[in-house]
Predict the 3D structure of the following.
Amino acid sequence: MTIRELVTLLDARVLCGEDKLDQDVNNAFSSDLMSDVLAFVTDKTVLITGLTNIHVMRTAEMLDIHCIVYARGKIPSDELLEEADELDIVVLATAHNCYTTCGLMYEAGIRSKNVRTGA
């Protein structure tokens, strides 16, 4: 699945990175705790969150996360969107809550990969 297809699946708005929508999506992880993201996420994962502070961008930068989906209708600040643009991160926003967003992605075949177990 590509990010472009993810936009349709989640009825999402593209807030940043429209020129990067043809990247593949294989894994996803949802959390508002960036410490959990750091502990459990592999690179090239879509991050689903409702947290709209700079820590999300720093975490995404460290882990080479190429797409962030803001759930629950959350919209990050212009400053965060500028940062995402500089880091080549696609930013989407969906009105779905995190649970529904994850369910839709799981149903479409996108899974999470546990860094510790490889499962």
Summary: DSSP finds five helices and five strands in the chain. The beta strands are 13-16, 27-30, 45-49, 67-70, 90-93. The helical segments are 3-9, 34-40, 54-63, 78-86, 98-107.
